Amino acid sequence: MNKYKKKDRSFIENKVQKELESFSLKHENGYFIPLVDFIKDKCSINNKLILDFGCGCGDLGLLMLENGAKGMIGIDISRPSIDAACSNIKAGKISNAEFICGDILNMSWTYPQPDLIVSNSALHYITGDLRIILKRLYEILKPGGFIIATIEKKDLNIFRSFQKFNLLFMPKVIRKNFHYLMRMIYIMRSLLFNNKGLSENESESLKGKSRYIAIPTVQDKTKEELLNDFNDAGFEKIEIEMMPPLNKLSIPHFFIMAAKKA
User: Fold this and answer.
1) pLDDT value at position 203?
2) Do 83 and 172 sit in the same domain of this protein?
3) DSSP codes joined into one string, 110-154
4) In angstroms, rounded to a whole number, what is the distance separating the alpha carbons of residues 38 and 36?
5) b/e sequence 8-47, b meaning 16+ C-beta within 10 Å
6) Phi and psi of 80, rounded to 5°?
7) What is the residue-averaged pLDDT of the chain?
8) Under a CB-based contact definition with an 8 Å cutoff, are residues 27 and 34 in contact?
9) Which domain holds residue 146?
């Protein structure tokens, strides 16, 4: 039975990875302000080099630059996301940010060691043993540096089953264009209830977020399991608490902060 469960898990993980490689989500303006403020309450980001692991379009890391970080490096496996991030820094003439498309496990690290690693809502999509990627991040992090990560809380089994069903059985063309249906719902709601419609920025964000209907997390960890994984990777001073929601639709996330020995 365990052998078949492992095969099923591996199959789902491979499907999720394929989805993420073509996934791109541009967050609405100001989305990450509460998270950056929360991080700043925990540690200083002034004059720090930031590594944003699973950076997406780079929104979080670029906001941290605006809040005092001296530089940032973003890495993600999604080519569309990295292309969007590179376009953003080119348009903004930002010289202290760089974005890399690739798997951090399969590349040599030739960049300076970051003072702080951030990873928002990305670690729960890591396939295989989470400790392997955590150990790699530990190696890259500067001694005395910190890692800050948010990861979905393990309490959404019904929703994840729905996501897995859609991933396996919903045609790809529908998964990629589901946002059109969601936009129609918003339009109908605005007409019926005289509500404000979607802005251009919100509409672009919806295009990405609608893909979540078929992208389940693959790391469903309890607080105790996460504590053990970070500890096994070498981190110390590990703190785990609930992350304040970024907006009213936010899924509950753990906020994890840990240090590398100086």
Assistant:
1) 55
2) no
3) -SPPPSEEEEES-GGG--S-HHHHHHHHHHHSPTT-EEEEEEE-S
4) 5
5) eeeebbebbeebbeebbbbbbeebbeebbebbeeeeebee
6) -60, -40
7) 85
8) no
9) 2-155+216-259
Strand order of the β-sheet with 49-53 is 97-101, 71-76, 49-53, 116-120, 146-152, 253-259, 236-242
* Tokens representing residue 73 in the block: 């490096």
Q: Which two tokens stand for residue 188?
A: 């109908």
Is 90 exceeded by the pLDDT of residue 140? yes
> 97 and 32 in one domain?
yes
User: Are residues 189 and 195 in contact, defined by beta-carbon separation less than 8 angstroms?
Assistant: yes
At residue 57, the pLDDT reads 93
Q: Domain tally for the chain?
A: 2
Asked if residues 89 and 99 have their Cβ atoms less than 8 Å apart, the reply is yes
Buried b (16+ CB within 10 A) or exposed e, 50-63: bbbbbbbbbbbbbb
Pair (185, 68) in one structural domain: no
Q: Quick one: 30 and 60 in the same domain? A: yes
Task: Using the structure block, give the residue that is written with the tokens 């670690």.
Answer: 123
What is the pLDDT, as a whole number, of residue 194?
65
How wide is the angle at C-alpha 255 spanned by C-alphas 71 and 67, nearest 5°? 30
Closest CA to 26 of 246, 174, 209: 209
Region of poorest pLDDT, from 62-66, 132-136, 152-156, 216-220: 152-156
pTM of the model: 0.83
